[in-house]
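Input sequence (219 aa), recorded before submission:
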Amino acid sequence: MNLGWWNCRGKQIVTMGLFCLLISFVTASRANPVILVMGDSLSAEYGLPRGSGWVKLLEAQLKKQASPWTVFNASISGETSSGGLTRLPALLDSKKPGLVLLELGANDALRGLSIEQTESNLRKMIVLSKQSGAKVLLFGIQIPPNYGQQYTKQFKDLYSKLAIQEGISLVPFFMAGVVSNKDLFQSDNIHPNVTAQPILFKNVWDAMAPYQSLLQKTP
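Predicted structure, token format:
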């Protein structure tokens, strides 16, 4: 028996098998494109019944449209832009999202992070997402005026500034239509209740208009 021929032929078979597995993996990834949500308690269903938050409403809308896209919600209550930046590389590597929804910053203000630090962290997250091949939708966040007029304005402006400079889409104000209605908040007067979730979803969905054609097909 010609063992040399067998070794050569065997290696070819193994190589072709590995190649086919790789192609299958890539095809499967493209067939199931992912929307990655990076947020805090506003996106993590804090204080809400499971499955009632705006992210679940987004999933339901995609399903209704028979979209091939799925949603992976990586939001954590209490998350800051620093924490999000630390977690993002591994999530980009494992989930390989085609679209990243970035809803962070409110807890930065609560913890006294500087505007410069928040802006730097968010910018790095945007850049990393784009470098991975993902589109980015940034959520505009605003804070109460008791933080001081200058800080409040700078905080609000940094989101539109980042969106323009990085060439990404923006939810102008994520809490629009909610923040001025106390009946739309939980007892802590901080977190939106179940009734507010469709409003938050609509704010996000309307801002996703530039990506509607993308959501109907694989990347």
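Checked by second reader. The chain has two domains: 1-31, 33-216.
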